Every structure is written in C-alpha cells, then in structure tokens.
C-alpha cells in the first residue's frame, strides 16, 4: 500500500504495463473468470466486512411498496431503461454512510415538491439498509421529516426499526455505517474546457470568442502546472496544486483505454471561469489536454484516480460509467473494478444502460429495474441473468436464439405457456417440436447438438423417457474405459435405451475410432447437462385436473362423467372430454380442451409447474455460462 491508499497490486511493473496494453480477448476472459471465482470464495468466507447487505424501500419515491435490493455480490449492477429509478437507488446509498445525506441529490422545490404518500397509505418517504460489521448485522432506518424551524427543509433522520416496514424489531437502533464514499456521476463529469466551451458566457469578457479566451487562459494554466504555484486574484486561489498520477494509475488507465500513456497530470482550477478539472496526457512524442481528448478518456482518468486512492472497504457508487466508452473499454473497466474489489475489499454499485457490464456476471450481481405497466410503479427484479439484461434493453446478444426441443405439440404448448407466464425470466428461450419422436431425436438431433457445443440447444423429453440411475462421469473413468468406444457405447445405451450410431470419418475406408470416441464423450456430457425430462409420464398427465374437469362434466353430461374418470390413459381422457364438451374428437376439439386445461394449470402453479420452471432456470444458467457444461 502506497501513501494515500494507492494499491499497486496487479498494476505495478513494466511487464504488466505491456501486458495490460496487449490483452487479448481470451486473456481478458481468463482474468475476469479467475477474479470472479476469487471474489466468490472471499464472499462465501465473509471476507467483506463493514458491508451493506440490503437496501429496502418501504415507501420511497415511485418504487413499489416494500421493494428491496439484496447485495449478495460485492459488485452490483443496477440495470434498466431511462427513468426506472436506478439513480434514485444510488442516491439512497449515497445518503447511507455517516455524515452523508440523500438531500444533496433529492430535495423539494416549488416545481418538484416532495409530498408524503396520501390516500390509504399516508406514509412519509423512507428507506432502510442493513449492514454487516464485526460479525453483527445492523439496520438503519431513514425517514424524511418536516421541521419548519430548521434552516433546511430537507431533513432525514434515523429511527428505530419499525415492524410496518418489515424490519427486524428485535434489533436495537443502530448507528449509520462508517465507510468512505466515492460517488461519480459520469453524465456530469465535464472537464474545465468542456464546461466553458459548451456552457460558458463571454459577454462580459474582452475576448472576441471562446477560442480566444481559451488560448489566453491556457498560457496561465500551463504556467501553474509547470511551476506548481497557486495563482491568486485579489487573494482568491484560482487553482489547486496539480496532481502527478502514479505509475499504477497511469498503467490502469492505459490498460482500460488500450493506450500507452507516459505521463498524466490532473489539476482543479477556475481559470476557465468556474471550477473544473483539466487533464494533461503525454504519449510518445506529444502532449495534449482534455481539449483534444475524448470524454471517455477524462472519465476513466477521474474514476481510476479516485478508486485507487480510496481507502480499503470503501463504498463506490458509479452512475452510468459507460458514457463515451466503447464496449471493449467497458469490459476492461469492469475487470479493473473487480480486481480492486478483490484487492481492497470495496463494495461497488453501478447503474448502467449498458449490457456489456452485465455480461459474464453472476445473476445475483445484476438487479433489473422495471416500470410495472399495471401500477405505473418501479419493480426491482433482485436477480437477473445477463441474457435478461440484454433482452430487456432491446439489444441482440450471444445469448439470443436459445432453443428447447420437445417431442410433441402439447409439450411445446406447455413449455411456451410457462415461458409466457414468466417472460421476465425466460424470454430468451424458444421452444419447438419436430415429428419423429424421442428415438429419432436421440439418434439425430442430440448427436448434432452435442457436436455443435454452443450451450444454446436443449432437449426436454416427456417423463416416460427418463432413466434410472445416473450418467457416467467421464472424469472418474479409468484410462482404459475412457478410450474404449465399446464401453462408452454401452454407457450411452444405458441412459438412452437404444444404440446410438456414430458416423465414422476415415479416408480410404479406414475407421477413425478416435473421432467416434470423442463424439461419444460429447454426447455423454451433452446428455448429462442439456437433456431433461418433464415431470410425470406424459404431457397430458401434467395438465389433467380431475376436479376442474369433474365440475365441467357434471354440469354438461353426468352420464359421461364416470366413463372419463375411469379411463387410465390421460390422452384418452382428454379425447373423451373433448367429445363430451364439443361433440367431436377431431384435432381442433382436442386442442381446445388442451388449451383450456393448460390455462387452468398455469393458474394453479402446482408442483409440476414449479419443477418445469426449475428446469428452465437450469437452462438459463447454462446459456449464461453460470453452470458448467463439460465438452
């Protein structure tokens, strides 16, 4: 650890500088996955102390009452469309540590008054958070109060835990968390040059243009940077001392932006009228200021400088850090933040519109903010797969076009209904069936899917295709069995119930046993991970509802009721029900009864539906690379 809290860590040698500037996608992904694994291990061992574990909004702004965010991973991503409340959540977090107040960002005015909830609710705006410190869990409640005799209308006070807010009332009133705070709103991080050039006023200046004024004042700025002096006008300082960025800071910035910087300086000044920050970069052979830099360069410099100088276990809040950064730089910025979380045990929470920050992150780290069309309030989905973040933001991604292959039309309708009823979770999944039956699928389609090995093809058989026992674990086989195609063939037959023929690809009529063995292994691993089975024996049995059908049949035709109920074959049960209710047993009548039963089944949400949702959730984990598929 350097003076001022700068950690050199992974960013400290000339070798690493060059490595950081030449990272390939594979190396970035490897470092990303390793860092995630290390953080997960640290998290399970409760290494992250003085850590906010939950933020709750019993009655707060336009959030659905009693919304909450659980911080299960030390880097959290708040994603959602414009106006979905992400920044409001960050402002509540900003006001959480001791000495901070949410009213710095949310305050009442004549145009935008903050009013208490009316009607039946009649509650003040409030929020609370829970935190973990020294082995103990504490909670802190903040309520907005009105004090006409106070200098500020914006007064938020702590209070004891309240049962009506769904707090643990057995806990005593706790002090706010004491934690260094770093808050950066990237939409507002304008350089001194940009502030004047785009928003400055020269009406009272002698200069004929903004360009002339900047030329004049740039001479003064260069002088104070070179001399290190504080320039004053009538005793008022016009600048602060310039800051020479350290080697680790320069290296981190260069790694994120993939640029070979030799030197970077920061200086806060008011030489361009209002206070602002100027940045001076040096590369091979030339030096330039923020006037000729991209806004993404400026944002990364400010972020890296603040993060590397933050004390360990800081709370770091980032509002839209993707501004002016291309997706590749966003990925490298995320890697930098994760490595800082690992090294200095920070808690980082960012709001973003960019799915690039969500890619590869665990679902527990991603929170999705959604405007509920029925209530017009903001709902928070506390766990969100990266694929869901892409889909909700209307972007195509590598997660698209995941397919579930089923045996028949009824199975397709059942799975489609579950997906539709849980579209916020399973919208990335598509379901289809092909004629030919289970045996044909095992010999042809599964053989093809296993060879493709793309984690986006799944098979969901009827329950009568399930097998007793377990599929062999290739990692536990002896060397002899591992390379024995006859042994592997028998293993495949044991769980498929049939012999699977693997095509030989050999020249001059020669058998390529090595290719067959490799294909057999892929088949086994694919079947183990990506082939599942519907609950019960057939799709008809899943949707059949004895009580529901009984009520209808007893009203329609008491004579036929007993005949339908005594039938043991669920397919025939549905056929006979169609005959009673429609007077016909043709395919359209049968589909009508199936659709009626599916609708009722969706409403009941029975055990079989819960089991199917668990299967679909497992597929989503594989699509998002959060469950290993051995190839």
UniProtKB/TrEMBL annotation:
Entry-linked SUPFAM superfamilies: P-loop containing nucleoside triphosphate hydrolases
Domain ATPase AAA-type core: 75-357
Record-linked InterPro entries: ATPase_AAA_core (IPR003959), Bact_Antivir_Def_Nuclease (IPR051396), P-loop_NTPase (IPR027417)
GO molecular function, one term: ATP hydrolysis activity
Pfam families assigned: AAA_21
Protein name, per record: AAA family ATPase
Natural source organism: Paenibacillus monticola
